């Protein structure tokens, strides 16, 4: 049975027990909270406080070593002028959300992405791009093609869905499952490189000791067998 609980604030430190930290980003009104709550509880909420930030801990199966463990930071609607470096530094993964009915929310994501990259001093991000509110297709201002193009530019997985549509709950869940899997693969590759680097360094140290030992051993006279 999965478990979800509200944390008072983003927690620091390394003792996270394999928990992946996810930050949900986007301007106010795009459906960040609706998307997060839909994943966590399978319920939809239409009204919430747009200035409230919350961190939720989600564990799919506490007794399974291969379970999904997430800390999800649902940020308040932010613009570039309200940006906090702590968002980028706290997170392992990012979900960038826009509304397909408002092109300005789509444009803002490129700026938010640059802020994340600047804060982390890296352009390599594990992230997903989500076009929300695809139930309002008649009000569409952002095409699927535009969404896919931005996702390709970001190196992100692309999803277009509606957090308010019960029939799309599987897509919402798949979004976070895919993100966790990408994080786990990236972490595995990073750990593997670190182990190889450590092994290589130890090997070089061992070789150096052998070489140093040989150079410090006194040479012996081939006739007398005594040190020369």
From TrEMBL:
From which organism does this entry originate? Answer: Elysia chlorotica
What's the Enzyme Commission number for this chain? 3.6.5.2
* Any GO MF annotation of the entry: GTP binding
**Name of this chain's protein:** small monomeric GTPase
Which family, according to the similarity comment? Belongs to the small GTPase superfamily. Ras family.
Q: Which Gene3D superfamilies match?
A: P-loop containing nucleotide triphosphate hydrolases
Q: Which PANTHER family match?
A: RAS-LIKE FAMILY MEMBER 11
Q: What is the lineage of its organism?
A: Eukaryota, Metazoa, Spiralia, Lophotrochozoa, Mollusca
Query: Reaction catalysed by this chain?
Result: GTP + H2O = GDP + phosphate + H(+)
Q: Where is the composition biased (Polar residues)?
A: 213-228
User: Which controlled-vocabulary keywords does the entry list?
Assistant: Hydrolase
The region annotated as signal peptide is none
The region called Disordered is annotated at: 209-228
Hydrolase as a keyword of this entry, yes or no, is yes
Q: What class of enzyme is it?
A: hydrolase
Record carries keyword Hydrolase: yes
The record, for SMART domains, names: RAB, RAS, RHO
């Amino acid at each position: 049975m999965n478990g979800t609980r509200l944390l008072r604030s983003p927690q620091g430190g390394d003792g996270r027990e394999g928990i992946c930290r996810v930050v949900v980003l986007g301007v106010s009104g795009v459906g960040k909270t609706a998307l997060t709550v839909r994943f966590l509880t399978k319920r939809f909420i239409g009204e919430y406080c747009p200035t409230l930030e919350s961190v939720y801990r989600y564990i799919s199966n506490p007794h399974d070593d291969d379970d999904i463990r997430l800390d999800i930071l649902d940020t308040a609607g932010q613009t570039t002028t309200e940006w906090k470096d702590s968002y980028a530094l706290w997170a392992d993964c990012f979900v960038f959300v826009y509304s397909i009915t408002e092109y300005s929310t789509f444009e803002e994501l490129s700026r938010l992405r640059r802020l994340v990259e600047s804060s982390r001093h890296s352009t390599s991000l594990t992230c997903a791009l989500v076009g929300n509110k695809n139930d309002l297709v008649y009000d569409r201002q952002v095409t699927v093609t535009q969404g896919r193009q931005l996702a390709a530019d970001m190196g992100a997985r692309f999803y277009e869905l509606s957090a308010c549509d019960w029939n799309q709950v599987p897509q919402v869940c798949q979004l976070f499952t895919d993100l966790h899997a990408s994080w786990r693969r990236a972490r595995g590759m990073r750990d593997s490189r670190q182990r190889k680097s450590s092994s290589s360094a130890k090997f070089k140290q061992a070789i150096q000791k052998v070489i140093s030992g040989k150079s410090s051993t006194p040479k012996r006279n081939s006739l007398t067998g005594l040190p020369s």
